[in-house]
Amino acid sequence: MGRAETHRGYSHREILKILAGLLLAMLTSMISTSIVTTALPTIVGELGGQEHLAWVVSAHLLATTVSVPLWGKLSDLFGRKPVFQGALAIFVAASLVAGLAQNMGMLIAARAAQGLGTGGVQALTQVIIGDVAEPRERGRYNGYLGAAFGVATVSGPLLGGFLVDADGLGWRWGFYACVP
Q1: Which among 42, 163, 57, 45 is positioned nearest to 110, based on CA atoms?
Q2: Count of Cβ atoms closer than 10 Å to residue 143 Cβ
Q3: What is the pTM of this model?
Q4: Alpha helix locations (H) across the chain?
Q5: CA-to-CA distance for 53 and 76, rounded, in angstroms?
Q6: 114: Cβ contacts below 8 Å, ≥ 6 apart
C-alpha cells in the first residue's frame, strides 16, 4: 500500500476533530472566494484600475482551478499534513498581502496566490477525508464539507458588504479576517 492508501482506523471522535480543522480551513478559504464581490466597487474606488476589475476575481478562480491537481500530486509525494499546511500558509500569507495591497496589480497578484492556497485546501480536504474515513462513512463527512461550502457561498458576500459599510473597518478586513 502506498502512502495515500494507508488507513489507520480512526475513531469517530478523531475523525470529527480532523473534520473540524478541515471545515474551518475550507470555510475560510471559500469565504475569501466570494467576499470580494460586494467590496469590488469600493476597492476600485480606492485603488483605481477599473479596467482590471474582472481580474480580482478571475485570478483567484483560475489559480484555484489550475492548482487543484498539482496539490493532490504533491500530497502523494510529500504527505498530506505538510502539503496541507503549506497550502494554508500560502493562503494566509496571500490574504495578508491582499489586505495590504496598494494598487490593483498587487491585489491581483495576491488574489492569484490566494487562489493557489485555496486550490490546495479544496483538494486536500477531500483527500484527507478519504484517507481517514472508511468508504461507507465518507458521504456523511463530505456532506459536512458541502454544507461549509454552501454557508461560505452565502455568507461571503454578506460579510463583504458588512465590512465595507462598517465604520472603522473597510474592504481590507475581508482579507485580514482570513489571517487568524
Answers
A1: 57
A2: 10
A3: 0.88
A4: 12-34, 40-47, 53-78, 80-99, 104-132, 138-165, 173-176
A5: 37
A6: 32, 60, 63, 90, 91, 94, 95, 98
- pLDDT tens digit sequence for 51-110: 888 899 899 999 999 999 999 999 999 999 999 999 999 999 999 999 999 999 999 999
Find cell 496589480 and name the residue: 105
All residues at 6 or more sequence positions from 147 whose CB lies less than 8 Å from its CB, including other chains? none
175 CB-contact burial (10 Å; exposed 0-12 / middle 13-18 / buried 19+) = buried
Within 13 Å and on the Cβ side, how many CA atoms surround 172? 13
Q: In this structure, are residues 115 and 61 in contact, taking their beta carbons and an 8 Å threshold?
A: yes
- Cell numbers representing residue 109 in the block: 497578484
Longest dimension (CA), the chain: 56
Taking CA atoms, 153 is separated from 19, 28, 50, in Å, by 19, 11, 25
